Write the structure tokens for this entry.
Amino acid sequence: MDTILDSNIEPKAKPKWLRVKLPTGKKYTELRGLVDKYKLNTICTSGSCPNMGECWGEGTATFMILGNICTRSCGFCGVKTGRPETVDWDEPEKVARSIKLMSIKHAVITSVDRDDIKDGGSIIWAETVQAVRRISPGTTMETLIPDFQGIERNIDRIIEVAPEIVSHNMETVRRLTREVRIQAKYDRSLEVLRYLKEKGVNRTKSGIMLGLGETEEEVIQTMYDLRAVNLDVLTIGQYLQPSKKHLPVKEFITPEQFEKYEKIGLELGFRHVESGALVRSSYRAQKHLL
């Protein structure tokens, strides 16, 4: 099997449709001031999300819990890999207070993988959802969870606190999973999504990135696989290389191709399909509640 990572590949020039407007607006300015003043940890700012201005303007923000060091080394992800710090048991309260302070209407919560601890971080996950409900009861939530190694008792902790949406990203097609996600498994991710739905989660969601060398046929097959586990919401976006150490972009997908995938997804029966070059997991997240 050919490897995706090739140091001899020249970086591709970004096409014009990937140009990002600087975030503006009164709401964005207010929230940016709060984040800077109180040193609030949002992945919107740390990940330099291209949709930050639009999302913040609509009262949506994304928060990452369980530290900023991941136990996995995915080829696409800019998060550091290594030995994480000890769990901060005050973190649920800190996140909830941040959400309250920012007057967030819909919060997306995500995390690094914590394969180093027995519960995979699921206890902190559940306590964070509960803290937000207690401190900011008007805020709805989406939890973008890791696979928890497929361990059901850890996934059950998320199900029991009943966030409005539970997400888990496939990230890529079956053939590329071993190189793109390394420690993850395509079928295990599908089973996590299937399990969530079978256990009564109202709205499930997943996302994939394009431009890593996948074919149209493979993308459509992934969409079929996700519908087979009754997934509700699908996001499709362009992969962008975080640094030279990460997997290179093989192709920039055209807007027309993204539109084609959106049409196919809606025909397959997904409730929502967000498909576009700048789409990220939390893009228009509040609309996925409808």
User: Anything to note?
Assistant: The CA atoms of residues 143 and 166 lie 5 Å apart. The first helix runs from residue 26 to 38. The first strand starts at residue 60 and ends at 65.
